[in-house]
Design brief:
The strands form four sheets. The chain has an eight-stranded mixed beta sheet, sandwiched between helices. Strands 1, 4, 5, 6 and 9 form a five-stranded mixed beta sheet that branches. It has a four-stranded antiparallel beta sheet with strand order 3-2-7-8, with no helix packed on it. Helix 10 runs parallel beside helix 11. It contains 13 helices and 19 strands. Strand 18, helix 11 and strand 19 form a beta-alpha-beta unit. The chain is 28% helix and 23% strand. The protein is elongated, with a radius of gyration of 29 Å.
């Protein structure tokens, strides 16, 4: 039996069909002509590069382009037209069909007239004379792009900023002051990509990289270079981080980085202090039995008479504010204003407590951060007065910042060896990713959310850095393939 809803839908469908026939009448002799073919589509590529760099290397000022379609091939460089100082361009006239896109005004060999399928990006590279290939991944874009037709006066334009001779980035540091008494003045290291000093027209996205200070950058700079040069997984970015931490005032722990737990936690937690002695050195002067080595069991002894709680942490948001308001402008001034500081070019990431802050900043500041990486994150924070863990990010933060948000992407990882029954880092990472997907339509598995459970690594900063390649290409992915497929150069 047909329901009233069925009748309503059927009637609506018939009205729609009749309306279409009335608006687009056809005679009995008319025949369907097949798919519409788009012609006279335009696209312009403009190359910006300091030609003084070419002459300093003994080269002329001609630049060339190779690619995978629209009249280009990987094996036959085509000379670009030089239109002004440091500026070259090429205009493409394109025909589009269900088969793909092809050069409309090209004659000759199969490469020039070949169709670029719709499921394949248009990719290209820039070369100098004498065959110097650009460094890094191919440029790439998916066709069609908007406003390509002859209806528009100007063709859509793609600007590119290649470099050819520099394969290593540099690092530097600045002291940046704050109005916050605890934050005070800290030293911030930053990584400038290989192209920075060669192509002064190029600008860069930025990453707040917790714990990635100047001394760590010295150790891992070549590894970061490889991500854009050797492997060509990602677009170049400026990483800005600090490892400038201080001992806590009046603390007997001797930890030279004691205030890190304040700066990298978004909420206040509890630290347990022995009434007598030290929990790690002498078990609170023997109050905790020597055979008690499990952290949770130790804290229970502290709770039950060996110690007392005191507040700790909770300066994380002030620390992120300081990075946004003071650190980024200082580095941008050093970089002559060449940082891209809008939300679509700003990412955040870290490991352990830095991973917690990475996810916290991304989730609570969608107007500031486009992408985030949360590695081996301390989602268990904070420890509470009952010697348990509060998991505030899962239980409070994710629940209190829901609803529509700007597009974002996130990478979350944890290792199987971090599956401790007290800190529950594996369960927490899985739940964090699941909750993000459930809470916001902007988060979609394997499109804007990536989760990895890494096998065999312990919890540690250098272990996290060894996995940087897993997410750098997720934050700012390369536009095209890693190299010219004929030469293997990148």
């Amino acid at each position: 039996m047909r329901s009233q809803d069925d009748e309503t839908m059927s009637t609506a469908s018939m009205i729609l069909f009749v309306t279409w026939l009335v608006s687009a009448p056809m005679s009995c002799e008319a025949q369907f002509m097949g798919p519409y073919i788009r012609t006279n589509l335009s696209l312009t590529v403009i190359v910006k590069y300091p030609e003084q760099q070419l002459t300093d290397h003994g080269l002329g000022t001609d630049l060339f382009i190779v690619g995978n379609g629209l009249g280009l091939s990987w094996s036959s460089p085509e000379k670009l037209e030089k239109i002004s100082m440091d500026t070259w361009h090429k205009n493409f006239l394109i025909e589009g069909s269900p088969y793909g896109h092809r050069c409309q005004d090209c004659d000759g060999d199969d490469n020039a007239t070949a169709v670029l399928p719709l499921d394949r990006k248009f990719e290209f590279r820039i070369n100098t004379e004498a065959g110097y290939d650009m460094v890094g991944a191919n440029y790439g874009l998916r066709l069609p792009v908007s406003k390509m037709s002859s209806y528009f006066d100007a063709a859509p334009t793609r600007y590119v900023y290649p470099h050819f001779f520099t394969f290593e980035g540099t690092s530097s540091s600045l002291n940046v002051s704050s109005d916050d008494d605890m934050i005070a003045t800290r030293n911030w290291g930053f990584y400038l990509p290989p192209s920075f000093h060669e192509n002064t027209y190029k600008r860069y996205p930025i990453v707040l990289a917790f714990d990635l200070g100047s001394s760590v950058l010295t150790l891992v700079r070549s590894y970061i270079d490889d991500l854009t040069v050797k492997y060509a997984l990602a677009e170049e970015a400026v990483f800005i981080g600090s490892e400038d931490y201080r001992p806590l005032p009046n603390s007997t722990s001797g930890d030279p980085a004691g205030d890190r737990i304040y700066l990298l936690t978004p909420t206040v937690g509890v630290d347990w202090v022995c009434y007598d002695g030290d929990m790690y050195l002498d078990g609170c002067n023997g109050c905790i039995p020597p055979n008690v080595t499990d952290m949770h069991d130790r804290l229970i002894h502290m709770r039950d008479g060996c110690g007392y709680p005191q507040d700790i942490g909770g300066k994380g948001d002030a620390y992120v504010d300081y990075w946004i308001d003071r650190v980024v402008p200082a580095v941008n001034a050093f970089a002559s204003g060449r940082l891209l500081t809008d939300r679509y070019h700003t990412a955040v990431g870290g490991c352990s407590l830095g991973g917690l802050m990475g996810c916290h900043a991304l989730w609570t500041r969608p107007d500031t951060f486009y992408a985030g990486a949360c590695q081996s994150s301390s989602f268990w924070w904070p420890t509470t007065v009952d010697a348990e863990n509060g998991f505030d990010f899962l239980n409070v933060t994710l629940r209190n910042h829901t609803g529509p948000r700007e597009p974002q992407r996130v990478y979350i990882d944890v290792t199987d060896l971090e599956d401790d029954p007290y800190y529950r880092q594996v369960d927490a990472a899985l739940l964090a990713a699941d909750t993000m997907v459930a809470q916001s339509p902007q988060f979609v598995w394997d499109a804007t959310v990536t989760l990895a459970v890494v096998i065999g690594q312990v919890h540690g900063g250098f272990e996290c850095l060894s996995r940087l390649w897993l997410y750098d290409g997720k934050l700012f992915p390369a536009q095209g393939g890693p190299r010219n497929p004929l030469t293997g150069q990148s």
